[in-house]
Amino acid sequence: MAEASFFLDNVNKHPGVQADFVGRVAGVPVSTDKEATVNKLEPAHRERVEELGFEWSELRRAEQVHGAEVAVVTGSEEAVLAGVDGLVSGVAGMILGIYVADCAAVYLVDRGSGAIGLVHSGKKGTEMGIVPKAVKRMKEAFGTRVEELEVAIAPCIRPPHYEVDFAAEIVSQLVAMGVPVGQISDSGVCTGEEVADFYSYRTEEGCTGRMLALLGITEQEKLGA
Hints:
alpha/beta, CNF1/YfiH-like putative cysteine hydrolases, six-stranded mixed sheet, 11 strands, 23% helix
């Protein structure tokens, strides 16, 4: 199972935060059927969730429709929140999840209020400004201040394997909002280039798996408490 946690070091240093990124899982056959492949990957993904100190039932995922809607997770929702590509939460004991296979998973941690956010942002989502919308949702719901945000951008496809550098655009959007550039950790890894370690929808022409981005707050120590 590929490891890519180095870019999460600054996120994980904050008490109460548990963040991870599950790359390619060796030995799991993939196909163009996303649902079937994700089901095959579930045992490995479930194991990682539990290693972080959460139950699989505490995982909340976005449906991911390549849109720009963001939902606030309270813990009373179904496992998959329909019609959204971003999730924000301030609830300890819950973990957020996003599946990606070239798009970026963007981690948001508010060092002040204790809120967290996890966003699926590819070409379309970035054009629609889903990451800034998630930050604004955190402001509205939790009083988040942009200067208190710690951000990480997971491995995603980049030039020359893709015509748009949406990871760089996400960084620009965050800086324009006032997030200090030193608090934004971009992995710099291209999934289209590193297919031995990561899944790439474009490079593998749709016959691929999904990485799982995870971000939660432990019951034991809520950030900002």
